[in-house]
Design brief:
The protein is an alpha+beta fold. The chain has 3 domains: 40 residues, no CATH class; 41 residues, no CATH class; 33 residues, no CATH class. 23% of the residues lie in helices and 9% in strands. It has 3 helices and 4 strands. The strands form 2 sheets. It has a two-stranded parallel ribbon. A hairpin with a 4-residue loop joins strand 3 and strand 4. It is globular and about 50 Å long.
Amino acid sequence: MPEAGYLPIPLKLARAGVKDMVRISDARMSGTAFGTIVLHIAPESAIGGPLAIVRTGDRIALDVEARRIDLLIPESEIASRLATWRAAASDPASPTAREIPARGYARLFHDHILQAPEGCDFDFLRRNGPA
């Protein structure tokens, strides 16, 4: 997992006196970060997880006690955005597209790394092997 989850408060908000904001990420971060942070959103956005379709202005509900995070847009809009995202991800000319490595460690990583809640490890290192 890349260590990219720490996002500082934008200068405009900091100048207005904002001291904290919720940060939501599918990355990880070191112990030096502070504030309200939700990490390891899975599945990750790179494979079409929920963060892949969030747009500026979308409302998100966070209920820490219930361990829930919800994108507050209609289900039909979620389906439409996911369909658009998948189409863009499969178009080699799209900036959303990800090239699947042909071989080597990068291909092994692509094919076998588990999502954050499952440990970000190779699936074949599990006791019972790949799922």
